[in-house]
Amino acid sequence: MMGPIMYLDLDGQGPRYAQLIRALKGAILDRRYAAGTRLPPSRALARELDVSRNTVLAAYEQLQVEGFLLGRVGSGSFVANVGPGGPRKLPANALVAPLSSFARRALANTDGRHIPGHQHQDLRYNLQYGVPLANPLLASAWRREVTRAAEHVQLDYPDAQGLERLRVQVCDYLARRRGVPAEPEDVLIVNGTQQAFSLAARVLLEAGDVVALEEPHYRGARQVLVAHGAHPRGCRVDGDGLVPSALPRSARLAVVTPSHQFPTGALLPLARRMELLAWAARERSWLIEDDYDGEFRYGGRPLAALKSLDRDGRVIYIGSFSKALFPALRLGYMVLPPALREAFVAAKWLEDRGSNTLEQAALAHFMAGGGFERHLRRAAVALRARRAAMLAGLARHARDALDVVDSNAGMHLTAWLAQANHGQCEQLVAHARTRGLGLYAIAPYCLKPPTQPGLVLGYAGLPPADIEAAMRLLGRCLRETGLVA
Ligand SMILES: Cc1ncc(COP(=O)(O)O)c(C=O)c1O
């Protein structure tokens, strides 16, 4: 049912009733007004368009005669069914102006993952990294928090740096859990890690600047930095994480995951952390510490974040609520060195005037009331069980084909295909898909294909029984593709 007012663009040519007829016909033929839509009463439309009521009545009458409208006495005028068709669609390549170099790099770098619906794959068992842990208790707790926040919603533009009470909670959390000393004025609330990388590119980089990435690394970071014109340089990672001597000279910035190398899972030892900091001080470069899943560790003592060792103000710390809560939330935070604070807040203000206040307020209250910590404890128990099911299943069904990397944290495991080449790995992924199993190769997380092919196996999205079944199916796919006897 159409509201009382409709958008109509009169072309100003000739009598008003003829202009109105043309505008209504155009809208009906473009299917902007679907069959059955009720047109506004003539009096209301006349008032809206500042024409006489008779002008509108004359137009409606003519359109009824021509079959565009159906009139029902006493109940108004309705759009008739004018058959199949739709708005005139311009071909996607009918551009009148060239795209910016940013847009061209963005399109070349996103592998089509920005296209709606790409992730809804019809798979029985999807081991895609990034699929969240579904938790009904979190859903109900979150609904309560959002409802409560909506009752106290602040209507004005928010503080672009983030709600102060959320920044206070983030500082408290970081001090207790990650050993990071931060004051609320050091924190910038962002729309997820992805925005943090994008702001970092705007604030710190010129097109052509060299950026050091771990090899393999988080694809989301590379994509946005490259779209902004950075030249990525891959740096070797071994069983202990990033090898500091592999860092290039004259890089403006290095992106590192010291707590849980992405995706191999290594924990960077203290000596290497100190070398990284010395490199940044020597090269006058910035270090972005992406602490994306530091809240979930299943053994061993966590090391404090790299940021806690930063004496020269060279580390930009990024945390996300995508893993700790859920990725649809699109909230994360940065802890910024004092020298960068104002420029980052200015960039954030220009970009979106600040993150959504309602969800920031809900989250601040959730954290202050202890609900967040309770959720983390429960999530860690569930994830531990899923991880154990995957490890047991891999040992039972894929031991002869896959070398599982030892890692004690997070929501995924990495496994190398010991005796296969990249072609065989692709074949395995394609074959598994036909059997309803979603497997994902490590190669897209690398600048250059790794010497050995491997898989990134996400376990957060499936309950243990499904993971067991998925591992059985993986064993079968390995046999069917000849990767094990
Ligand atoms: C290494 C790494 N960093 C960050 C993120 C989170 O990104 P965001 O906060 O944009 O959801 C992820 C999630 O997949 C990740 O794997």
Q: What features would you describe in this structure?
A:
The protein folds into 3 domains: 16-79, Winged helix-like DNA-binding domain superfamily/Winged helix DNA-binding domain (Arc Repressor Mutant, subunit A, Orthogonal Bundle); 125-130 and 380-480, Aspartate Aminotransferase, domain 1; 137-373, Aspartate Aminotransferase, domain 2 (3-Layer(aba) Sandwich). It contains 15 helices and 15 strands. It has helices at residues 16-29, 42-49, 53-65, 101-109, 136-151, 164-178, 192-204, 219-227, 270-283, 321-324, 338-352, 357-368, 371-397, 422-434, 464-480; strands at 69-72, 76-79, 125-126, 187-190, 210-215, 231-238, 241-242, 253-256, 286-290, 315-320, 332-335, 402-404, 412-417, 437-438, 454-458. The strands form 4 sheets. Strands 4-11-10-9-8-5-6-7 form an 8-stranded mixed β-sheet, sandwiched between helices. Helix 1 packs across helix 3. The mean pLDDT is 92. Bound molecules: pyridoxal-5'-phosphate. The site of pyridoxal-5'-phosphate (PLP) has 14 residues, from helix 7.
Features:
eight-stranded mixed beta sheet; 485 residues; 15 helices; Aspartate Aminotransferase, domain 1; Aspartate Aminotransferase, domain 2; alpha/beta; three-stranded antiparallel beta sheet; 41% helix; Arc Repressor Mutant, subunit A; binds pyridoxal-5'-phosphate; 15 strands
Bound molecules: pyridoxal-5'-phosphate
Mean pLDDT: 92
Query: Which second-level CATH architecture of the largest domain applies?
Result: 3-Layer(aba) Sandwich
Number of strands: 15
Q: Which homologous superfamily in CATH is the superfamily of the largest domain?
A: Type I PLP-dependent aspartate aminotransferase-like (Major domain)
Beta-strand share of residues:
5-15%
Q: State the low-pLDDT regions, or none.
A: none
What is the string of SSEs from the N terminus onward? HHHEEHEHHEHEHEEEHEEHEHHHEEHEEH
Given helix and strand content, the structural type is alpha/beta
The biggest sheet, with number of strands, parallel, antiparallel or mixed sense and barrel status, is: 8 strands, mixed
Question: Overall 3D geometry?
Answer: globular
Which percent bin holds the helix content? 40-55%
CATH topology name of the largest domain, in short, is Aspartate Aminotransferase, domain 2
Name of the CATH class of the largest domain: Alpha Beta
Order of strands, widest sheet: 4-11-10-9-8-5-6-7
Query: What's the alpha carbon Rg, rounded to whole Å?
Result: 28 Å
